[in-house]
Amino acid sequence: MTKTAKPTGYVIYNGESLLDGSPIVAIATLKSRNGKTADMMQVWILRSDIDPLTANRTGQDFAICGFCKHRGIPTNRGKGTAAKRTCYVQIGQAPASVYRTYKNGRYPAIAGHAALVELGRNRKIRIGAYGDGAALPSYVVESLVSQAKLHTAYSHQADMDGITFDASHYMQSVDSLEEAHAAWSTGARTFRIISDLSEIVPDKEIACPSLIGKHCADCGLCDGTKRHPNAKSIVIPVHGAGSKHFAATA
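RESULT FIELD:
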């Protein structure tokens, strides 16, 4: 008798993007070997109809990334990513692999509040290993993290028309000190990429604890305001494949 392999992940949403109405899918993979986060459930938000590299190169990744400036500049060239892309995620690796596995029908679908709660119960969860959680209906994330041990989540969509930024669950990703101050004035906590640690605002920010070897799975500070309402915001020096194109904005 052939044993059926256990799923390595689940489709937790398949429908329209709240950012532009395009078809997207959210997939929660159960295990991770990510050296920074350590072992956390990873939620990937992808176009369901276009492979991630093509979506990024052509600008159709707006459906999952919105106005994030790190997407790069769309191009008509035949391969690779968008031009001058500064995002640290290497799309051709994990996102592409998750997309292929999804297209091969190897991620069962689950739906409904109770099922999402159980999937996330007692887990450590990273929302948006690729993609922005604001593309998803809020109940998906709320249900998934409601009984989790901890979660991390980031969104660039705080000022997007028609999108409600949930500061209780998300760090507000900002790209300048001016944006950071605006976010702080609303009570949101921020996540900011900087060129040098000397740029930290001491009474508002701290360096990401990963710089001293702490994993996200053991930290959990990047969860908005729900569990850490009075914690400082987080900054990290620019890193990853796109760092050569990065230019900090004061």
